[in-house]
Amino acid sequence: MNRQVTGFDDMNSILRNERKVGGVIESDYLRLTSGEEYENVVVTKVELIGSAVCSMTCVTEDGQTLMVNVKEVSLIHQPQHKKICELNNEAFKHRKMQQKLKYLKRLFELNEDSLNPLFLEEAMLLIEDIGLKNVHQEVDVSSVIPEDKIYTIA
Question: Which three-class secondary structure state does DSSP give residue 133?
Fold first, then answer.
C-alpha cells in the first residue's frame, strides 16, 4: 500500500477490489478546470460507460461529496493508495473507520469460535487497514493477534 496510482484504470481497479486489497485513494489536491482546488481529496468512485471513464466521486476535507465529470478535472496531484489509518482527510477517515470497525465487529461475531483461513485473512486485512491501535479500542482481537508475552530470565 501507499503506492502511486497512475490513472483512472488503477483507481477503478482499487475501488472495485476494495475488500481484497483494502485502503482508499487519496490525492494531495484536486484542481478543476474552473480553478477550484480541493486538498486531501479521497476518490470514492470512478464511473465507466463501457470502457470510457465519464465521472468520478470524491470526498473533500470538510466532508462534501463531489461528483465531477472527468472533462472538468484539470489535475489530480499525487494520487496514492493508502491505508485508512494513514489518511490526511479526517472527515472521510472517521467515516470509513467507523464503517470498517462495524464490519470487523460483525465478522468476529459470525466467526466467534472459528479460525478458518478466509476469516483470518479478511480480519488481518481489516486490522492492518484500520490500524491495530484503533481496533484495540473497539474490538477484542486476541483470538487473531495474541498479546505479546514478556519473559524474564532469572
Answer: helix
CA distance 57 to 68: 6
pLDDT of 89: 95
User: What is the pTM assigned to this prediction?
Assistant: 0.83
Q: Which residues are within 8 A (CB) of 67 and not within 5 positions of it... i.e. 6 or more apart?
A: 55, 56, 57
Residues 24-39 pLDDT 10s: 999 999 999 999 999 9
Q: Which phi and psi (to 5°) does residue 144 adopt? A: -100, -45
Percent helix, strand, coil in the chain, to 5, is 40, 30, 30
> Any long-range contacts for 124-129 (C-beta under 8 Å, 24+ apart)?
125/20, 125/22, 126/22, 126/100, 128/22, 128/83, 129/22, 129/23, 129/83, 129/84, 129/85, 129/100
Position 150 confidence tier, pLDDT thresholds 50, 70, 90: low
Q: Read off the pLDDT of residues 132-142 as tens digits, 9 standing for 90 and up.
A: 888 888 888 87
CA distances from 93 to 90, 108, 120, 132 (A): 5, 22, 24, 15
Using CA atoms, how far residue 108 sits from 39, 59, 98, 146, in Å, is 36, 29, 15, 15
